[in-house]
């Protein structure tokens, strides 16, 4: 069993007070309740976070890297229970090995009408993970934080609409959209971010655009003003 690192303790303690950008604030009512598990642990390359790659055959967010998660069911007791259940169903994570540290405010994704609560977890007793739900998940990765903060792995990704948001090239995955927005916030608020070049802009790959069109939804990238 490993101890929670100081940076994660501090981040979790202030998570509920993180300011949510206006375009991600939930409406007064409506929206499907959902949750994702941001599961941090101590891996062979230092601190890491668990990500999944969704199935390219999926109905929603096909082929996209993501945090384990999904809708809140009546028996979950809320976002924390939902995040742990979904992580177990999608990756085989044993919830008994996870210490829940806190939650971020709800984030609203208008293209899927989801009110998503990110849940912070510390993997004090790691269990083996795999694509436990092949129809929904193609692969599971423990992505080292050192790779996420590497300036060479960070870009701004431009959607055909012209809007751009943060993205990461890690472990053969292009992490973008909602997941990248949350990771960008976590790295910055946790004091882990290293200086990187937001003027390095790439276009969203054509195959990703095609999958999005197949789902008949339009992603809502983060509008970012490059920092000096």
Automatic annotation (TrEMBL):
Could you state a single Gene Ontology molecular function term? 8-oxo-7,8-dihydrodeoxyguanosine triphosphate pyrophosphatase activity
Class of the enzyme per the UniProt entry, highest EC level: hydrolase
Q: Which EC number(s) does the record attach to this protein?
A: 3.6.1.55
- DNA damage recorded as keyword: no
Residues passing through the membrane, by range: none
Return the Gly residues bias intervals.
68-79
Alphabetically ordered keywords of this record: Hydrolase, Magnesium, Manganese, Metal-binding
Q: Which cofactor does it need?
A: Mg(2+); Mn(2+)
Which residue range or ranges hold the Nudix hydrolase domain?
Answer: 30-170
Q: Where is this region: Disordered?
A: 56-79
Name of the protein described by the UniProt record? NUDIX hydrolase
